[in-house]
Amino acid sequence: MTQLYTGDGKGKTTAAAGLALRALGNGFGVLFVQFMKGRPSGEVDMLARCGGERIRILREWNEHFVVGEPNEREVGMVRSLWERTVRRVAEDTPDLLVLDEVVVAIVCGLLEEERLLRFLRERPASMEVVMTGRGASQRLIEASDLVTRMQKVKHYYDRGQRARRGIEY
Length: 169
Fold this sequence. Notes:
Strand 2 (30-34), helix 2 (42-51) and strand 3 form a beta-alpha-beta unit. The chain is globular. It is built from 6 helices and 6 strands; from the N terminus they run E-H-E-H-E-H-E-H-H-E-H-E. The two termini are 27 Å apart. By secondary structure, it is of the alpha/beta class. It has a single domain (2-159), classed as P-loop containing nucleotide triphosphate hydrolases (Rossmann fold, 3-Layer(aba) Sandwich), CATH 3.40.50.
């Protein structure tokens, strides 16, 4: 199946990480790929500790937000990470593939949506895929078997609260 967690509410990565922990707890192999995230985070640390040899984590980002048109370095980081992901899937098909923030990478113009859609059509049938990120297109929604839209009703970011260690990362 293909799952998509989108919307402007908090919890998309948290839900994907929780599913990865559940899969690991059941002996599944997991490939957890984070697009556009580079700073140390509690979920990545715990997945690595809990997963041992059953998890691979791929990340490549300089921790900066994309403002306006992406530059060559940003595009290069995402494309390099995508190529590493595709190679890893081909070499050792995981039971669960999490593509965290892949939707944002598409929205920002760092990865072509058609590449992701083609991958979803051609992937091994046994592999569950979870995608996260704000702004999923209708095409991504239609390509998914399960879509959860996180809706922000109220958020402390709107009052100027910054991301907190242990809660947001």
